[in-house]
Amino acid sequence: MTNLNENTVNYYKDDFENVKASHVEFCNFMQQNNLFKSNTLVCDMACGAGSGTIHYARKNKKTNILGIDYNNEVIDWGKKYLNEIEINNLTIEFGDWYEMNKDYKGRFDGIFSIHSFCTLKKIEDALDALFALNPNWIALNSLFYDGPCDVLIHIRDYTRPEITDDYPDADFNIFSLDRLKDYCFRNGYKEFKFQKFEIPFEISRPNNKGRGTYTVKTEFDDRAQFSGPVYLPWYFVLAKK
Questions:
Q1: How far is 189 from 136, CA to CA, in rounded Å?
Q2: What is the CATH number of domain 6-205+234-240?
Q3: Do residues 162 and 136 lie in contact, with contact meaning Cβ atoms separated by under 8 Å?
Q4: pTM higher than 0.85 for the full model?
Q5: β-strands 41-45, 64-69: how paired?
Q6: Strand, helix or coil for residue 207
Q7: CA 90, CA 111: separation in Å to the nearest integer?
Q8: Fewer CB within 10 A of the end CB, N or C, for the chain?
Q9: Distance between CA 32 and CA 13 in Å, rounded?
Q10: Each residue of 146-175: pLDDT tens digit?
Q11: What single string gives the DSSP state of each residue in 94-149?
């Protein structure tokens, strides 16, 4: 039995069974930059149940991948699900992003994180915690702006009573790529690349007009992504020593 709400469980089940286009394209981005090397250890920070992480492990079988998340219940649910699947290069475990086990310092060739930075109010503390682990590279899939502005957004969804004002997954915070590049550079990550995620197909708007990604043809691109009233500029970012 689990105390996880039905929406959360259904999301993870669907994510395990149906690989999202963003996972496919982000994995391609990392492979094109030769990040998944043989016999190295790579971390997926804030991996949830590992439902997305499994795609990266399957596509890079010679790389060992460790998923870490702060939600013990989600990790326990994910472990049970993963035990039913034959995959030898992926494990997930509990861990606190901001208080990581010191034994991990220097062990990760790289760290990637998916859809997590957009739930933060500021990114410096989260980056400092990653820098402290001393990986050779950090790759992010989150909301960014190619300019000098941050934008903080929180959605109140009146169809989802569990989404309160302190519910981080209702945040769609957009951070400046310029500032991120400068902060990484000052911390020793001098190679910086980014690529906008262009979703390869159209998605209809939810019937209830609530949260949930859909696409709209705009002056930005043919398939600009939105959730409710919010434009979602997803980017892939790599900072490397």
A1: 8
A2: 3.40.50.150
A3: no
A4: yes
A5: parallel
A6: coil
A7: 14
A8: N
A9: 29
A10: 999 999 999 888 887 777 888 777 899 999
A11: E--GGG--GGGTTT-SEEEEES-GGG-S-SHHHHHHHHHT--SEEEEEEEEESSS-
